Protein 1
Amino acid sequence: MTKGANVVLGSLSDGDVESVVVSLGWVSPTGEGDADVSVLLLDENGKVRGDTDFYFYNNPCAPDGSVQLLGKTPVGEGSEDRIGFDLKALPDDVATILVAASRYGSARFDELEDLRLTLSDGSGEPLLTYEVGDAGGVSALIFGELYRRGEEWKFRAVGQGYEAGFAALASDHGVDIDDDAEDDAEAAETAERVDEAPEEEATVEPGDESAAGDALVEQIPEPRPMPEPVAPVAGVVPPPRTPDAAADAVPAARKTRPRTAKKKVTLPKALKKSLAENDAWRGARLFPVSALKSDRDREMRATSVLLAVMAQVPEFGRRLTAGFGAPAGRMETFTEVSLPHGDTPRRPDGVIRVERAGKLWTALVETKTNGNPLKAEQVQAYADIAARRGYEAVITLSNDVALEGSPLVEVKIDRRRKNKVSLWHLSWAEVAHQAQMLIRHEGVVNPAHAWLLEELLHYLLHENSGCHGFQNMGPAWVPVRSGIQDETLCQGDPRALETVESWERLVRQVSLGLGGELGLKVLPVQRARRDSDAVARRSRMADQLCLDGTLQAELRIEGVAGVLGVTADLRTAKIRTSIDIPAPEQGYPLSWAKRIVRELAEAPADLHIETLVEGETGGPRGTLERLRPEPGDMLPKSGVKITGFRLSLFKSMGGQRGNTEAGFIRSIDEAVHKFNAGVLAHLDRLVVTKGA
């Protein structure tokens, strides 16, 4: 579509367009640019009706399911933000839906490339694409709008920008921001006074332990606060979450976000002291795993357990199905349902049905555990059954991780059928991630639901469940590793490409695990060339693997300036995890060095610190243990300008392709989690900031 054009949604598809998904995407040349999406519901006068008409990352879902921010999903160019709309559930007095995005601070949209909006139907079939070619130097941008015309919904490509940012966009549509501006100014003034105040140690008189607790709370920021859904207050504009380039400071503590007024239940990581007489006593579990003897037993038990919890915990069931085009409604789940198919009935592992306003959304589920692969002919049969019966989707579930949201098994659907069947894939690792996010960080309303999710998570993580996620680098791994070590692997070898695809799956799974642990979004960064696709990018990575023997990845953690780099060197059998910290614009280099060493006092002694300098390949470097007594050794002798510091940890790499104790997959996972616990956890307390 072109700017200003509009189209009736019903004319784009023969299928259901009452549920649609809008995706916003862009490409950052540096791999670090990002923006926050937001949605405003407007009345006939073009104004919000009230507080509940404003949706952003801290208020991502409407109670009636009409709007749901589904978060980012990796694509070839980096990631896309997806928003689900159930148009039938929208109140009658909502005339227009604005879909917008805003950047942080001084960042502008002309610094990003390939700005685009894609609208898909409930089955995931793309209906239209709008490429924004003239965004200009604006910090807020309306990509498009959905609006009513009689009984029909239409879409208009808007492409309107605001130089004054989201505040101006919000004001134009009835959001009052005056109070927030005053609060922001007061907060900034308070922060400035705190920065200027001399450092003092808190002292507490005997018997005043409560004051000691308060003093500690004031001095030590919460390491990684997780946003909880909260109804927006009039005038609340999404606060900036991370600096775009962070060129002016070492990462400071993450910003605390508003908490929900309605308390939600989360379960603590540390369990209460057991009442058992000794460690040999095993606690009773809702979902036991001791009786699982065969792969069939594991598949049946895992399917039944998961589907039962999905139906009983609405937050969890909705979280897993929203991205598949399912509406928000009453969910029921079934197992081992017999469906006719030729001479022999078929029994899919499960069926999910969601009812809303008298309409049913149905998905068939095919499950594999213990690393067993999905069978194309089996999935094809379920797709045929779904198409004949008017079902909307087939969901496959296994230990493997799909690439860029694509299904692991391609099937041929007759597109002439009126009812289109979408094919989706879930990894068991993603299921565990979503359960962990809810019970550890975001919370659920019902305490019994929190306990059910805890039992589900315990089951999934048990070694006998068979639901352990991606745990095998594939048959190409050993020949590729051997070919690199003896320098016989040539460019163009298809096994190198297979290894790169397995590496991408592993990186996506590691991101899920780390995100679930922290309660934050963790996404792989794809520094794609302009107009390049995922296949071309993987081919370049395969060529690089053949040339220098390395597999590389970058992870962006929400709220952390910079990216976590992961490099597996197959020649030296070493794994390197690292992050670059930009140098402050003010202050003395020796002061920076001293504070880095002091604030990383609890980091591993073998942490490598390298000084990054302007115009040269590298500056002084050394281990934290050696630099502790002499921080000045971090400074270059030539007096060249310091641009930052690189913190790195090295770990021996497992050689086996599987997830055994000596396996490559486990060693990567351990390296990332060790770097997070030993290094990133201390960056929140690092006080080398602008003006230090």
Protein 2
Amino acid sequence: MPESKSKFLVPAISTAIVVAGGIAVYMYLKSPTGDSSSPLGSAKVVPANALIATYINTDDQSWNQLRQFGNPQAQQLITKSLENVNKELLSDSNISYETDIKPWVGGVMIAVLPPTAPTPTQPNAPIKPKQEPNILLVVGIKDKLSALNFSKKLKEQKNLQTEESDYKGQKIIASKNKGKSTYTTVLNNSQLLLAPEKQALEKAIDTYKGEPSFATKEGASSILSKGVDIKNSLAQIYVPDYANMAQQLTALSPQARPLPPQTLAQLKQVKSMVAGIGVDDAGLRLKAVVNLDPQLSKFQYQTTPAKIVGQFPSDTFALVTGQNINRSWQTLVEQSKDYPELKQVVEQTRGQLQQFANLDLDKDIFGWMNQEFALGAVKSSQGWLANVGFGGAIIFDTSDRKTAEATFTKLDDLAKKQSLNVAQKSIGGKNITEWQIPQQGALVAHGWLDQDTVFLAIGGPVGETLADKKGQSLDNTDTFKSVTGSLQKPNAGYFYLDMDNTTSLITRFATAGQPLPPDASAILSSIRGIGVTVNSPDKSTSQMEMLLSLKPATAK
């Protein structure tokens, strides 16, 4: 080979090697981090004794879905709140979350660990257990190059004091700012761990090197892998041992007493729980899945036909529906045998009702409440209700009309003894009984809407509206449909709240000196309503779903 070519090729090859090496380093730094940024991947470095863990999704795609909702004032308020948090966390520094942190953060898991007993300062000195849980943050690194640039910028901060130490071959950096210490370490260039206590970080390193992890803990593995089926998940919460979590967190309170055996037995009915919050076209949606012990659980699930909702008028702004109050009461009575205080309350209520009203609590009150029921609040500006703006009603479907009629007859007799005028009225072809107060009108009204459906209303005008059934029913209103229409079916009933009507009542009762704050008004006016329901596909599972129905974004 000619010498001239030799002189050219040698440096050229050397340059190629350097360039190739640089490309390899860059590709490594930019490469995906596998499952290290997922809930399961993060849980693999969380110690097995963690009581609860929350995973926060930092993906812009999910959070940006919120921009489709709310009025400009509410959106500005949320943006300002986030900016204030950013300034507070990164005060006295030239670090920006948007430019310096956000590009490399790939999800954050926050784990709560039991408190660590401190080492005694003197020989034979008593050890007082630490009364605060340990917090551990596991931050996934999705862009290693951006993370590297951030670490360099962090070291340039003037007010930050750092000190390095080694634990089992893993570097731990202690950072002190304004007297507060934070301990950090990086695992396999893919996860950043932070904790205010060094022991929590050392425990996580032990887990990384092979000690049992939260991901392999009994009860945790399944809820981590399954999670909650929710669109655009923002955060999920994992509780693998519900009773143990409640017991340990309760014990941390200085005034707390040990949980009674009966209470602990109740808690043990719940084995584990996972909950998640996400955003979809309807608004913010929360789902929770509770895994029950079928051998211990007293819960008896029943679906409701939800037909009773149609008995309420469109002016109903709050509603709770369910099924078979009688069975729930029987379950409570059965459980009261293990709780002396609860049993005493049950017995006293039975005795007082029998003495005062000649009513048998089990038979006359709950005995006939064996089908669907609903309790609602209804807007009204008539009669004495004009002073408060609304009345209420409870409606029952029953298969035992005879007992229900006998009960209302006894209640009418009791009202007469209290100097109330008990009068009959025909509304919409239905016979209604009212308890009237002179110059005030009807305080209470009750009657039968059909062969199997009876109501008791607070306020005569509400009773008349229920009986007359003119106008649109609640289940046909746009608000009720939008708030509850996407909730899971079949279910055990609904909780429903119309936020516009609720807000108007709140504003009405706000005094002139203390009006509703503008920020609160902006948030409330962005909410259409709240809907909640529960269901149970089998004896070992209970599911809850809540929708915070939001109004579409309005132009600025």
Protein 3
Amino acid sequence: MPTERSGKPTFVPPDTTTALPKLPFHFSAKGLEEAARVLSAGPAGVFRALLHDQESESTLLVARQVLEAFLTRGRELAAKSPEAGTPSRDFAAAVAALVERARDELATELDGLDELAATGPDVRTAVLRQRGVLGLLAGCWLDVVSQPATQPAVVVNRLFAQHFALRGAGDPRRSARYRRARVLEDAGAALPDVAAADFLERAQARDLTILLGCFPLALAVLPANFLPEVVGVHYAFHALGVDDRLLGTPPPLPESELRDLLAEYARLADGEERDRLVAAVVLTLALEREHVAMLGQLAEFRKTQPLESKVAEIFARHAPLAGRQHGRIRVGRLPLVDIFDGFGRVAGRVDETALAEFLAEFRESPYLKARRDGDCRFLAAIRFGGPMFGIFSAGEAGILAEWAARVQAGERPDIALPPNTAGDDRARYWREAIAAARPADVVVSEEEPADHRELFYRLVNIENFANTLSLAAERAEKCFQDAEILFEHGAGGRYTDASFFEYSPDALYHRAERIYWEKLVDPYEPLTEIPDVDEVLFRQNTYHLTYLIDGAWLHRLGRLGRQERESDSMLFAIYADEMGNGDVRKNHLTLTRRALASMGIHLPHIRTAEFMDQDELPDDLYGFALQQLCLCLFPDRFHNEILGYNLAIEMFGSGEMRLHEIQKLRHHGFDDCYEQAHLTIDNFSAGHAKQAADIIVAYLDRVRRTSGDGAIAEEWRRIWRGYASFAYFLEQPMLKELAERQAAGPVRETTAELVL
């Protein structure tokens, strides 16, 4: 093997982590109160919190409680199943056989479901739309599995490679989720984006569907702590392929690739970790059986549902939104508005007695009586040109037309409104299980970190220190505010120009190109004298802490429900490049470890408590890394600032500083792989630096098209202060000179500690 300081690639043992050390989950008392409120909001409230509010401390606690309920059940099922015992030989084949048996068992039920769905388009639509809720969540457990606490583990990179493939290699139109949504649309079961406020309502999602959806959403919030479970769920869900079977689509991931991942995990994991994976597999198979059984119940209900019941559902769905414009409309003796108000709601359900009475009255009203042209006032009202056009969907309008025709033909069946109870028993079980879950590893703590090292440790392990989120947000915001001093004085920067300017695409590209040439490229001259080895090592050590979290500023931007903007997919593509697109050899964190090893520097992983005691990187270097870790935790709140920060950090990868470091490293025989990779990938021709500018333009173009030109100014100001926040650390010598020239007042307190 090459030796250290040889100038050749240095051998670095791969990161064989398969599960993170078990740590308590720290929450504040306020976080506990907020989590209790979310959990009391019912299945839909929990689902929406896990999906939409991933920056709140309470959401992490909700996720922990949901996982406790589900994973406890998984362990119970695995303990009762002799087939689920961890095999001593060919682990992957044994787990695959377990899934294959479940697939064979489900085949009969799915065939029966096909037969039921064939009895009517509304039956098939109801089944596909219901299943679509879970199908469109598929893979969300991989959204943040790649993070500072888990990279560059071999298994994590294998997972990320498959995540990259599921995401269409950065093209959302080629993603598995997009293709699945198109198939649902073609089948007449279109659903809005999962982030849409009415997603669950449009899907007419049953409580069991919603609760089962909470499990993958919770796993997506805490993937680092449940890595064995992520692997198990990922394999079982995709290998079982319920959605592919229902939709008639090819599997998004070949089973052979899934099996290879399973085998790799088994080779590296210990017995307890394999047991956790198997329990997750058994649980996933059980949950899929539960949902397929519920789909059968739903299909049977839709098949046998009386027409009057379907009409009643339609009126019940729309009645709460009926406005006062119906004040002059009477059905029977009462105004329609009073009738709708009288429906009331008990436990979220419309008063069925009042609803049935209304339908009986409406059947006899003049609004359904046939006119000479064969039409009736009600149907005319809901067609194009009528006062109720657009209220009912095409499917609903068809049901209402069929009902009106039967009423006009003299049919007066008893109005029976059989309840839809599909999945109710299992939903009740899961509601109670989640409510009763009490994770033993939850700790209530208000203690703040003692120093920057402990804060760094907490931020890397943020899943276990959700009580630090508010501190991280405050710290990031303060830095953004402090950095605005460069709006006025930034032109004097050595490597940046954060002086503010009015935005236009041309102005941004002009500024970026000017910085590239005048600040980064043109000043370059090869060094005529190379510093001694100690000085080179010291200089490199000023960078290493941020190199060890490379890409972190983007790692949370690709989450479920946040992929509708062109800029989002472009940012994900940059992050994927930083992580080697799943190839651990090209992962920038692997390159960092190679470079460090060539210098004789061997550090514990940044997620470990031991890293707090390392003595290679001194305390005054933490500020820059802390800001990056703080801002990345809030991809919604600080989305604009991250766009600007991304531009700054990607541009800094090019030019004089990088070329000088390469020259010095090569002179002393150190591995320059990390510096070389960024010099090429961050180029301003087509690389990350140019892409970062393109992303800002794409984002602001969307703002202009959706909100108008007037909305751009504030959005742009926030983006540029993100750029300035990077420059704020990089240009500390200039800022110190500026402070010394200021005649009045002491230098204000700042968040910057790094001097380059």
Protein 4
Amino acid sequence: MREFLLGLRLLFGAGRGNRLRFFLMAAGSSLGVCCLALVLTIPAVLDAHDGRAAAREPQTTSVSKAKGGSALVLERRDPHGSRPFTRVFVARGGAHQQPPPGLDALPAPGELYLSPRLHDLLHSEPGIKGLLPGRERGLIGAPGLADPDELYAYVGTTRAEIAHDADTGALQSFGYSYAPVSVVEPSTLTNLRFALATLVLLPLAVFLSVCARLSAASRTRRLASLRLLGLSSRGTQRVNAAETVAAALLGVLLGLGEYWLLNQVMSRSGLPALRWYPADGALSWTTAVVCLVGCPALAWFVGRASARGAAASPLAVRRTAVPKPPSKWGGLLLVTGLGIVTGFCATGLTDHPATSNGVFGLLLVGGVLLTGMGLVLALPWLSYLLARKLAGTTQSLTLNLAMRRNEVEPGSAMRVVTGLVLLVFAASLAQGVLIEFEQVSRPSNPVQDYSVPLTALTEEQQERLAEVPGVRAHARTMVSWSKPTDSGFPPQATALIATCAQLTRLVRSVEGCQEGRVMRLVNPNSSTDPDIRPGASFPFRLRDGQRHLTLSLTLPSAATVVRPYDPSAVGDASVIVPPSRLPAHARPQSGFLVLNSDSDPHVVRAVLDGIGTAAPTASVEPVGVNVDSLQQIAVIETLLVLGMIMGLVIGVAAFLVAVTDRAVERRAQVTAITLIGARRRTLRAVQSVQVVLPLAIGLTLAVVTGKLAESSYLITGGGEVFWDFAGVPVLVCAALGVVVVATLGTLPLVGRRIDPELVRRD
């Protein structure tokens, strides 16, 4: 306790510069704590989303087994654009039933309860009123909504209207132990946590260490003085640790306050595809304890380690003796981590690549983390070896001065470049996570089909849908009609109303299509319906205004060989009919409008949004695609981008803090060299070389080790892509950009004013 109090007295009594450094340490630590709290709270936000979705899920039983007084429930989940639109039809029973979360009572027939976002949408798009029969009675409260932007409605109805629907169930209660659709699947969430840990937590640990080592040289000399005055070795380390712990504690309190403000702002403005309530992102006790204990503990160990030299050899510190070479133990961690990830990469060259199941998943994570930590800890030793080699062989004054300084003090330059090196290492891993997720979420088809019932569309809406940005082709289908007989339903045929050009864009390949002719469609990869044969006739009902027409088509012997995509909205069509063969102004009485676009998730979301804008009440089936999956893709991409932004902010902040600290610490040396005749141009070149050369070593290692770690992750992921060669140019360009930024950041290290008082004697 005496050493702790002594450290605090020295902190506030050692002058304005020391106090300024303390507050800089606290401010830097607060930024790191804010980012740490954000990363730790993301799973809680997702869990809160799933928890509310699970709490409102109706538990039902079959209508036939239900009691007469039970309420009936029918749930409809349709896409509105690229977002799910859920309607829950409720028919009250005779007995009192507990309402779902967010409502005070079950809706009566003709009553509507809407989510706030759906309430606003109803006013901006009155066309969706057809999907919501009844009058609006109130809004659904926050406990009944997964997120503030959800489109959700409870529609009151009568038992007669929904009792005979096959999907109707008798309501028992509300609430399940799990959400029907998770915002992020558990397996994907594991990969997401791994990515965020690499993108944020590794640079964060380096950044907090940099903040704890501000003005390291000045503090070491002061601690050496205390040691020479009789303070014990452990007491000297505790004095230094007291200052760093005090700064870390203040930084934790500031950082938690910053996170509280950030949560209030972000929860109200939201992120793309992700919204939450402020209570979802509130600080939990676990997060607060991790920040309050973890950050000061890291500062304590860093402070004790930085004071070890002053406590062990105080006279050498005061006389500025040549320090010992850096430790080689960091190289052991790097070699161990590289050995693990290289072993996983080697399995990718065999017929049985490794997987991330069981212990192999933990081994992979450990290998990546060991590689990242070893990269940081091995840089001072590698920089020392290179500096010593170059200083002994070069004839250049600039290079000699720069390398001698790095040889004497390799850790100073490393504090400047470590954050940027880890940034490039994490960027490579981020590429691997994005590739892995793209392989999982990317459709196997290069195109995406959309099917919209023609009965829900006007002629004007059909024209608008065909012009939606992203739509490549469009056509219509119609199904033949025949009156059912006692023996069952007669055979049916599906006709595709399209030109050969439209057909070519809707399927994988077309052979033998003749423009303007009715032709059978033959798929060699599927069995042929025996009723679909040349000479068979099928009636199709058409409508021309108020008139009803019947078109009888006889299947010709001429056939077109088509190979549709799987799945496809036109795969079951048996005949192609040119639009010119239909009567003027006639349209099928029943059928679908088929649209086609690229299968890229961004294009699919844009097309669905366009369909929702042009025809908000139409039921859209994106063939083979689940709208919930599109939402999940958007959420994960948002979180990955957020992690990369946080990693970038932390890396740049570590660089700026270290550069500023280095400029202050090196003033005496720069002044001394200037007074003996060195030109400012030479000093700027020396300062740049001191940073750029170690940075070049670190970036080269970061690119190599990052690609190895990325490849090991891709191999164990089980996807088709093992070696991301396409990402190498991007990573190299990023590394070159980092070198340019670091070079520009070293220029202010040589000031314009020369103060001879900075040169002091012991």
